[in-house]
Design a protein that fits this description.
The structure holds two protein chains of two kinds. Chain A is an all-alpha fold. Chain A contains twelve helices and two strands, in the order ααααααααααααββ. A two-stranded antiparallel ribbon of chain A has the order 1-2. Chain A is extended and about 100 Å long. By secondary structure, chain B is mainly α. Chain B has one domain. In chain B, 79% of the residues lie in helices and 0% in strands. Chain B is built from ten helices and no strands. In chain B, helix 3 crosses helix 7 and helix 6 crosses helix 7. The chains are: A mainly alpha, B mainly alpha. The interface between A and B is medium-sized, with 27 and 34 residues.
Chain lengths: 280, 271
């Protein structure tokens, strides 16, 4: 009996243990959580705490951001991330680049996610400025800066400067120098954005981010197509088309392309092509 | 008459290699290096950087465990178990005993780091094989240099354990003092930068603190000098003059520490 008893006890307690694990994790999820916890320890403190493992700490903080961002894809609500969560993403990516300013991945994720969805273009640019300073052999970071200045901030002169800087770095795409020149001409916004995205996709190895960029490129190509159709309409009838149906009625286009973001393209009052999804 | 230093070194080395803790430490290191392949695969662009980070950090951390849990015991056991009386009754001076023991520990560190490096290199190699496009600035010489620097730092740290063991009554005190020195040594450069410019994080630091930190900066070993993992991971250049000055710093500090340990140990009285 004395030998069998411990074994019986273990056999009894094991299933109890397993069920407790799931119960306790469920209960943990229900614990009240503080909102607005976008706080990340200041970088100088993180650097001291990381001891000699700065590089590893940088990898870890980056992975933390990545895992969190990945988990938000399960959410149903829109917008997917709250404002303070975007801020936290920025703070943690910043911490990661403070620990190792040469690490490319945080800059890469910041450019792909914080700008389009997170509306944090200025912040992303400060990050990218730092990256561009340290990684002085990499043309991608000044290229990102150029794109953000051109597309989001509408600072074409600055964008042109960044692109010239990028084109001087080794391995830069030969399209950059000509793109920098093109930015001087107003009114080719969509066309330029298409070229930017094509260059971006070329240097993007990660499947998910590549797909995001490709969807965006598709949307831009559709907009470009519609803009050209509107221009043809303007040429023929000496006035702006008012709705998409005008274009179809006059046989300029056969059908309205589908917005990959699920919205509907429409013609704004000033004649520009917009979509109800706002490309998000 | 041949010096008795060498036989002591050999005995110490053999004793260290036979220590059971080494198995545990090795298994831990192998697990981490295996995890290297997994974790590197999770990254998006700079797999090479992460692979090197992981490999070098594993070597460094494992070496630290070795110094703390095997190295310290090699000297402390003689003192704790009183076998030191048998050694000292022979025609050996106490400084000779310290130097012999220290050489044995150096041998132990060199052997373990070499074995670990082979596994680390295999793990980097395997990541490189699976994702060949992600290693644009990778260089083997830099990785090897980083490993050598880690070795120097570990030897310096174990010299410190001898200094602490020469006056402390139990091995536990030696362990605590060594851990404290390691933490201070690794972070002193960052702490000094922080207290000299505290406005970056918005704190206030009294002038006394600044003085204390500056004093600590000169007394404790600056282990961050030997930390070139970041440079190795990104393939950033390291000048020969830096290598020269860093190695000189390590050698001089180690010699000073061991000599001091010898002096203190000679004066120590055993109950």
């Amino acid at each position: 009996m004395q030998r069998v008893l411990p074994i019986i006890l273990i056999l009894l307690l094991l299933p109890v243990h397993v069920s407790i694990i799931s119960k306790v994790t469920e209960a943990k999820k229900l614990l009240p959580k503080g909102e607005d916890t976008s706080y990340v320890l200041p970088s100088p403190i993180l650097k001291i705490m990381a001891l000699e493992f700065d590089g590893l700490a940088s990898d870890y903080t980056f992975l933390k951001a990545l895992v969190f961002f990945g988990s938000t894809f399960e959410r149903q609500e829109k917008p997917r991330l709250k404002n303070w969560e975007w801020r936290w993403m920025y703070n943690i990516l910043k911490a990661s680049t403070d620990l190792d300013p040469y690490f490319l991945d945080p800059y890469y994720v910041a450019e792909a996610q914080l700008t389009w969805e997170g509306n944090m273009v200025r912040e992303t640019n400060t990050l990218l400025e730092k990256g561009s300073r340290y990684r002085d052999w990499d043309w991608m970071l000044p290229f990102y800066l150029g794109f953000n200045s051109f597309y989001f901030l509408h600072e074409d002169a600055k964008a042109s400067e960044y692109l010239m800087e990028a084109s001087k770095r080794p391995g830069a795409s030969p399209m950059l120098a000509s793109l920098a020149g093109r930015l001087a001409y107003k009114g080719k916004k969509t066309e330029n954005a298409v070229i930017f995205l094509q260059v971006m996709i070329k240097r993007t190895e990660d499947e998910n981010i590549r797909k995001q960029y490709e969807t965006r490129l598709n949307a831009f190509k559709h907009i470009l197509f519609l803009e050209r159709a509107a221009a043809v309409y303007q040429e023929r009838f000496k006035r702006q088309p008012e709705t998409m149906d005008d274009l179809i009625a006059k046989n300029i286009i056969k059908e309205i392309p589908e917005d990959p973001y699920g919205g509907k393209f429409y013609i704004d009052k000033d004649g520009s092509i917009k979509t109800t999804s706002e490309l998000r | 008459m041949t010096t008795p230093i060498w036989p002591i070194a050999v005995i110490t080395f053999k004793e260290g290699i036979r220590n059971r803790a080494i198995y545990g430490i090795s298994i831990f290191a192998l697990l981490l290096l295996g995890a290297n392949i997994l974790i590197s695969g999770m990254m998006m662009q700079e797999l090479g950087k992460v692979a090197v980070d992981m490999a070098l950090s594993t070597i460094s951390f494992t070496g630290l465990l070795l110094v703390l849990f095997v190295g310290i015991n090699l000297m402390a056991k003689d003192l704790d178990k009183r076998t030191i009386y048998m050694v000292l009754s022979r025609p050996i001076s106490r400084p000779q005993y310290i130097i012999g023991k220290f050489l044995g520990v150096i041998l132990l560190i060199l052997t373990t780091i070499s074995i670990l490096s082979i596994f680390a290199i295999i793990s980097i190699f395997m990541v490189k094989l699976s994702y060949p496009g992600y290693f644009p600035r990778f260089s083997w010489p830099l990785v090897l240099l980083a490993i050598s620097f880690i070795t120097i730092a570990l030897i310096l740290l174990s010299a410190l354990t001898f200094l602490f063991a020469s006056f402390s009554s139990t091995s536990f005190i030696t362990l605590v003092l060594t851990v404290v020195s390691y933490i201070i040594g690794q972070s002193i450069t960052d702490v000094k930068a922080l207290v000299e410019a505290p406005q970056t994080v918005g704190i206030k630091v009294s002038s006394v603190t600044v003085k204390v930190v500056q004093a600590a900066y000169y007394i404790f070993p600056n282990l961050s000098i030997f930390d070139i993992k970041l440079q190795a991971a990104h393939g950033l250049p390291i000048s020969w003059s830096y290598v020269f000055w860093a190695v000189s710093y390590g050698v001089v500090y180690t010699c000073l520490t061991i000599i001091l340990a010898g002096i203190i140990f000679r004066r120590r009285e055993f109950p």
